[in-house]
Design a protein that fits this description.
Chain A: GO terms for molecular function: DNA binding; RNA binding. Chain A: It comes from Nannospalax galili (Northern Israeli blind subterranean mole rat). The complex is a heterodimer of chains A (235) and B (270). With 235 residues, chain A is α+β, with helices and mostly antiparallel strands. Chain A has helices spanning 89-105, 129-144, 171-176, 203-234, and strands at residues 6-9, 31-35, 43-49, 52-62, 75-81, 115-124, 152-159, 165-167, 179-186, 192-199, 201-202. In chain A, the strands form 2 sheets. A 6-stranded mixed beta sheet of chain A has the order 1-2-3-4-6-5. In chain A, helix 1 links the parallel strand 5 (75-81) and strand 6 (115-124). Chain A is globular, with a radius of gyration of 17 Å. In chain B, the strands form 3 sheets. In chain B, strands 1, 2, 3, 4, 5 and 6 form a 6-stranded mixed beta sheet that branches. Chain B has a 4-stranded antiparallel beta sheet with strand order 10-9-11-12. Chain B has a two-stranded antiparallel ribbon with strand order 7-8. The longest helix of chain B has 31 residues, at 239-269. Chain B has 270 residues and is α+β, with helices and mostly antiparallel strands. In chain B, strand 2 (41-47) and strand 3 form a beta hairpin. Classes of the chains: A alpha+beta (235), B alpha+beta (270). The A-B interface holds A 89-90, 92-93, 95-104, 181, 184-186, 189, 191-203, 206-207, 210-211 and B 94, 97-98, 100-102, 104-105, 108-111, 213-214, 221, 224-239, 242-243, 246. Strand 11 of chain A pairs antiparallel with strand 12 of chain B, so a sheet runs across the interface.
Chain lengths: 235, 270
């Protein structure tokens, strides 16, 4: 029988500040992940970051329409459903970002002429939504057993008007910020897989945010490892 | 070509590309302003073979209740079947939607026009600028061409003076008095394609985009500030490689600005 594991993790930065309630400086919100909670998809995961929650389901490798098939690798599809309303152009743009990130890590060549579909449903949005979607998608792909070259995670960085860096901002902080940058980093060398930004910022600030995101991604990858260890050690 | 990727690799080894360009060289950029007389502003941009035309129409609208002193700028990118065999008729495909969202983000992030400048009477009347970008020939690097076309067209827009008549509460348009828009910054997009996870080439053609393992677009304004760093997945990049891209984007921004200023000067002299 599948065991549903709930893995919680409180993340602390090396400077020793607790992450909840969040103090000044770089720290991530409390996050949690639950895998294998849906019965129909091949893999599913729910990722919580503070109050932001995204549910992901993965179907694949499965049959693909002849018009969409690629002869030497798997066709990846991402569907993102917002919490309210019909999906629009903004959702299409985010789907493209998530899809290209997954395509960079999934070993599609092992499953040619098949389709791997990732469906994301936004359950609640309290800031850093795209990063949460990326994390949920990664956990769901792992749960489905899709072969991947590396894991990936999403990190959001906000720059306020004084130039202070804030990781994993809430919706209020994102609104007040001068710039919001979202990065997707891979687990092997923390290379930048995907980036999308809002607002104006300088080149030096970009490098600063990237470095902070790379440090934060270490925590997230450690959390992935712990949650998977806990899940498989019981069964 | 039977093995397009191998063919390309042979050129990349010699640090050049099949069309004779260096890895950091852009295609010939040409711009033509004011060609559409029925639009309030227009521009046609050619980046090698890639051709994008932008037309801006200004209309009246009531500002929304949560932003009563702001006008609207509505961009729309259309990739018709005319420009490439990969697009079909019907509702906009994914590529068109993603490009439209990208242009909307660039306008929002770079604050190219302050929406407050488009307001005529707070709460009652404001301008809405409909920016329609149509691709006439798709040969790669659509984002750069669209951003440039949009900027050139907005610089060409002339809005008539509008006064609200106190007695009738109707808007009176004075077509004889027209003024240009206040363009605050000049955002310029520079696109790169990543090959084999290591090599970065600038301004990819359609075929190069197809063979590339990843793409990256940097939008920079003249103060060295980044408006947008758009990297939709693809192979990973280190911080150092990003830095090289930034410096190339800075030089490109200066080239494009110079070209634009020359064209506008020649227009005004007429």
């Amino acid at each position: 029988m599948e065991v549903v594991m709930r893995a919680d993790a409180k993340v602390r930065v090396e400077s020793g500040t607790e992450s909840s309630p969040r103090g000044p400086g770089c720290s991530l919100r409390h996050f949690a992940c639950e895998q294998n909670l849906l019965s129909r998809p091949d893999g599913s995961a729910s990722f919580l970051q503070g109050d932001t929650s995204v549910l992901a389901g993965v179907y694949g490798p499965a049959e693909v329409k002849v018009s969409k098939e690629i002869f030497n690798k798997a066709t990846l599809e991402v569907i993102l459903r917002p919490k309210i309303g019909l999906p629009g152009v903004a959702e299409k743009s985010q789907e493209r970002l998530i899809r290209n990130t997954c395509e960079a890590v999934v070993l599609g060549a092992l499953h040619p002429r098949t389709s791997i579909t990732v469906v994301l449903q936004v359950v609640s949005d309290a800031g850093s939504l795209l990063a949460c979607c990326l994390n949920a998608a990664c956990m769901a792909l792992v749960d489905a057993g899709v072969p991947m070259r590396a894991l990936f995670c999403g990190v959001t960085c906000a720059l306020d008007s004084d130039g202070n860096l804030l990781l994993d901002p809430t919706a209020k902080q994102e609104k007040k910020a001068r710039a919001v940058l979202t990065f997707a980093l891979d687990s092997v060398e923390q290379k930048l897989l995907m980036s999308t930004t809002k607002g104006l910022y300088s080149d030096a600030e970009l490098q600063q945010c990237l470095a902070a995101a790379q440090a934060a991604s270490q925590h997230i990858f450690r959390f992935y490892r712990e949650s998977l260890q806990r899940r498989y050690s019981k069964s | 070509t039977v093995e397009p990727l191998e063919y390309y690799r042979r050129f990349l080894k010699e640090n050049c590309r099949p069309d004779g360009r260096e890895l950091g060289e852009f295609r010939t950029t040409t711009v033509n302003i004011g060609s559409i007389s029925t639009a309030d502003g227009s521009a046609l941009v050619k980046l090698g073979n890639t051709t994008v035309i932008c037309g801006v129409k200004a209309e009246f609208a009531t500002p929304s209740t949560d932003a009563p002193a702001k006008g609207y700028i509505v961009p729309n990118v259309d990739l018709p079947p005319l420009c490439s065999s990969r697009f079909r008729t019907g509702p906009p495909g994914e590529e068109a939607q993603v490009t439209s969202q990208f242009i909307a983000d660039v306008i929002e992030n770079s604050q190219i026009i302050k929406k407050e400048d488009l307001c005529i009477s707070p709460g009652k009347l404001a301008w809405v600028l409909y920016c329609d970008l149509i691709c006439l020939d798709y040969d790669g690097n659509i984002l750069d061409a669209c951003t440039f076309a949009l900027l050139a067209a907005l610089k060409n827009v002339q809005l008539p003076e509008v006064t609200i008549n106190e007695e009738t509460a109707l808007a009176e348009v004075n077509l004889k008095k027209k003024s240009y828009l206040n363009i605050r910054t000049n955002p310029v997009a520079t696109s790169f394609a990543v090959f084999d996870d290591t090599l970065l080439i600038v301004d990819p053609t359609g075929e190069e985009e197809h063979l590339a393992t990843g793409t990256l677009t940097v939008v920079m304004n003249e103060h060295g500030k980044l408006c947008c760093l758009h990297k939709p997945g693809g192979s990973g990049l280190t911080g150092a490689k990003l830095q090289d891209c930034m410096s190339r984007a800075v030089t490109r921004q200066k080239e494009v600005k110079k070209l634009m200023d020359e064209v506008i000067k020649s227009m005004n002299q007429k």
